[in-house]
Amino acid sequence: MRAQFVLSEIGVGLRRNLTMTFAVVVSVALSLALFGGSLLMSDQVNTMKGFWYDKVNVSIFLCNKSDAESDPNCAKGAVTDDQKKQIKADLDKMGVVQTVTYESQDQAYKHYKEQFGDSPLASSLTPDQMQESYRIKLKDPQKYQVIATAFNGRDGVQSVQDQKGILDNLFKLLNGMNWAARAVMALMLVVALMLIVNTVRVSAFSRRRETGIMRLVGASGFYIQAPFIMEAAVAGLIGGTLACAFLLIARYFLIDHGLALADQLTLINFIGWDAVLTKLPLILATSLLMPALAAFFALRKYLKV
């Protein structure tokens, strides 16, 4: 097969259907950019899970005088020194516990003022209204229920709270957004495939005389099909290259520069450049193979070779 002929036919096909080729390039670029973005979003959520789950605490909040008057869990009164010592001793015996940190009412009040000092409620609170607590770091964050079962309902304990539960709600929201992006991506891929099939169909129809002559002189089916398949593959590859550029630009401006989220949201462990770069070969391969396969199956129906 003469490569020069195939390349010239690709150029002719792209020029003849310039508008549809542009539509294919744009739809492939957007769909694959969403595809890469959804993969990176999954990586980001997993990175955040590993980062935050390693830092979550279980908090055992102890009853104070205010709770004794209003909370049924503290009906027996505020926690006593003996109860606190017993709770601490029991925690130290538990194999799932890594560290235990005690937070007094004064420390809790100080931390509250640091975090919510601008709140109107902060000015009306006093240290004696705050709760003493034990902050427990678990060896395995999944073992929260062991602590909850052991201390919920105990005298002097107002509640047992797992910070992992709060994070789970955040990660569910992020995963929901990720699945929404994947749904849009799937829709865009369907649109891209339809455009590719239609473009190949129009291109084959516009060159039906040339392909008819080629059949008469004994050209093989693959020789006739190759320019159309490569035409679709080139358009897809251009779209895939644009999708890769979108991801690189988004990573650069959203995280490192421009919005500089890495500097503004220091509590979030963002994915690195390696996570982005490893996705690019997959995007380029998809952008090349998807249009080529779509064109191949379309030609079997419309070119009849």
Widest beta sheet: strand line-up:
2-3-1-4
What structural class is derived from the secondary structure elements?
Answer: alpha+beta
> Which ranges are low-confidence, i.e. pLDDT below 50, for 5 or more consecutive residues?
none
The Rg value, from CA coordinates, equals: 31 Å
Number of domains: 2
Oligomer type:
single chain
For the biggest sheet, the summary is:
4 strands, antiparallel
Distance from N terminus to C terminus (CA atoms, Å) equals: 17 Å
Strand content: 5-15%
Q: Tell me how many strands there are.
A: 4
Counting H and I runs of at least 4 residues, what is the number of helices? 11
Which H/E pattern describes the elements? HHEHHEHEHEHHHHH
Averaged pLDDT:
80
Q: What's the shape? A: rod-shaped
Helical fraction: 55-70%
Q: Mind explaining what this structure looks like?
A:
This protein is α+β, with helices and mostly antiparallel strands. The protein folds into two domains: 3-52 and 169-303, no CATH class; 57-140, Alpha-Beta Plaits (2-Layer Sandwich), CATH 3.30.70.3040. It has eleven helices and four strands, in the order H-H-E-H-H-E-H-E-H-E-H-H-H-H-H. A four-stranded antiparallel β-sheet has the order 2-3-1-4. The longest helix is centred in the middle third of the chain and has 44 residues, at 163-206. The protein is rod-shaped, with a radius of gyration of 31 Å.
List the helices and strands and how they pair.
Elements: H1 3-16, H2 18-53, E1 58-62, H3 65-70, H4 81-93, E2 97-103, H5 105-116, E3 133-138, H6 144-151, E4 157-162, H7 163-206, H8 208-216, H9 221-256, H10 261-264, H11 273-302
Antiparallel strand pairs: 1-3, 1-4, 2-3
Helix pairs in contact: 1-9, 2-7, 2-9, 2-11, 7-9, 7-11, 9-11
Pfam family, one: FtsX_ECD
Membrane topology: Multi-pass membrane protein
Subcellular location: Cell membrane
